[in-house]
Write a structure and sequence with these properties.
- The protein is mainly α and about 140 residues long.
- It has a domain of about 80 residues.
- Helices cover about 65% and strands about 5% of the residues.
- A two-stranded antiparallel ribbon has the order 1-2.
- Strand 1 and strand 2 form a beta hairpin.
- The protein starts with a helix and ends with a helix.
Length: about 140
């Protein structure tokens, strides 16, 4: 038992200084790696985040995948925007087709009380100037104008 303990202590005393010497010999970067870009040695706890420096294997592939995801997302967003802008153009084309057939339809919006009052005054003024239009339908008067 004593031989086993002494053997473990001896091996630990040989391994620990070697690891300390290796750490002192090769300072690690922020990712936990050391060496040149061609030959890179990383600790087990090394992480990505040092582009252009020594990094764990697979970091460049992860960056490429992330870049591709961002490109795909931007492409999708651009297509959706283009599609959204294309719809009003189609509606405009339909309105142009209607204008070829006849008068363009005005935009209909609800009238507030002020607008109704002003419309009534204008209508009364028109009928005062044109008494023959008093018995006509509004659509007939509109077509004459």
């Amino acid at each position: 038992m004593k031989k086993l303990i002494s053997a473990l202590l001896l091996s630990a005393s040989l391994v620990l200084p070697a690891q300390v010497a290796r750490a002192e010999k090769h300072p690690t970067n922020a990712c936990g790696c050391y060496g040149e870009a061609d030959s890179c040695t990383c600790e087990k706890t090394a992480k990505c985040g040092c582009p252009g420096e020594c990094e764990p294997k697979g970091c460049e592939v992860e960056r490429q995948k992330q870049l591709q995801k961002e490109i795909d997302a931007e492409t999708k967003r651009a297509k959706e925007e283009e599609k959204a802008h294309a719809k009003p153009k189609e509606q405009t084309k339909a309105e142009e087709d209607d204008s070829d057939k006849g008068a363009k339809k005005p935009a209909v919006r609800p009238m507030n009380a002020k607008d109704k009052k002003q419309f009534l005054k204008l209508l009364e003024a028109y009928l005062a100037e044109h008494p023959e239009a008093n018995n006509k339908m509004l659509s007939e008067v509109r077509s004459e104008l």
